[in-house]
Amino acid sequence: MDSETRKKRLATVSQLVAHAAQMAQQGDRSGASRRLDEATVALQPLGDDEGPDRLEVLASIHEGKGQLAIAGGDANEAYLQLSQSIRVRERQAKLTGEPRLLHLGIAHLNLSSACTQLGRNEEALAENRRALEAFDGFAPAQAGFMKVAALQAQGLLLARMRRPDEAITTYERAIALGEALQAEDVPDIPEMLSQIRISASVTCHQIGRNAQARAIGREAADEAWDRFEVTGADRAAQQYLTAQMNLVTFCEHGGDFAGAEDALFKVLKLVGPQAEVLARGRALYVELLKKDDAELEAGNLPRDEVEESLAELDAMVAAAAQA
Predict the structure, then answer these.
(1) For residue range 198-249, what is the model confidence (pLDDT) as tens digits?
(2) Domains in the chain: how many in total?
(3) b/e code 52-79 from CB counts within 10 Å (16+ = b)
(4) In a domain, 262, yes or no
(5) Which domain does 41 fall in, by range?
(6) What CA dihedral angle connects 18, 8, 107 and 99, to 10 degrees?
C-alpha cells in the first residue's frame, strides 16, 4: 500500500473511532460498537504494519471496545480488549521512545475496573497503581482529574478489600488533590470531591472513627448543597441527601442525637414525607426512647423532644397514608 493510500485509510479509521467515542458519550453504545467494528475492518488491509500511527488507532479501538464492555457489564471482554490496548501502546512506546502516558494510564485504570468486576482485587490494585504512575508523568493541570479519579477508585477498592486505614489515607490524598484542582476551577471536580467525602465518611464510620465520619460527612453535605443551590443539578441534590442520611446514622452512633435529628429534618425539608425517610426517622426515635434520660441529655435531645418529634413523624405517616 502506497503512503498516500495508507495515510487516507488511517484518517478514515481515526474518524470512525472519534465518531464511536461521541456516540458512546451520547449513550448509544450499540452505535459506538458498530463504528469500532467498522474501524477494525478498515484497518485490516494494513496487516501487521508496526507504524506508530497505526498502533495509535489500533490501541484506541481496543480502548473503545474495552470501555463499552465495562459499561455493558461484560468484564471478561473488557479485560481482553484493555489488556490488548496496553500491549499495543507498549509496542508503540518502544518504537517512539515516548510512551503516551495519559492514554496508557486511562487504559490501566479501565483495566483495573474490569479486574474489580471480575473479583480480581489484587490485580485491580496493581493496575490502579500503574495508572497513577502514568498520570504522575504530567502536571496536575494536565492529568489531575484522572489522578483524582484513580485515587477515588483505589480508595473504594481498598475498602472492599477490608483495608480501611489504607482506604482512608487514599481518600485523603484524593481530597487534597481535588481541593487544589477545585481552586483552579477544573470542571467536574466539585462533584467528584463530594462523592469521595461521602465514601471516606462511610469508611471512617465503619471502623469507629465517628467524629471524623461526622466531620467529613458534613463537609460533603455542605458542598453538595452549595452546588445544588447554584446549579439545581439532580446529582448535587442526591449527594446532599445521601450525605445527610449518612449523618443521621453517624450522629446517632456517636451520641450526637440532636445532630441526627437535624440531618433527618433537613432531608424531610427537601424531599417531603417520603416513606423511606419517615421509616428511618421513626426507627431513630424509637431507639432513642430506649435510652435513659442522662444519655439523651448528653446527646442534646431530651426525652420530651424525642417524644414530640416521634409524634410529628407519626402524623406525617398518617397524612401520607391518607393522601
Answers:
(1) 999 999 999 999 999 999 999 999 999 999 999 999 999 999 999 999 999 9
(2) 3
(3) ebbbbbbbbbbbbbbbbbbeeebbebbb
(4) no
(5) 8-137
(6) -130
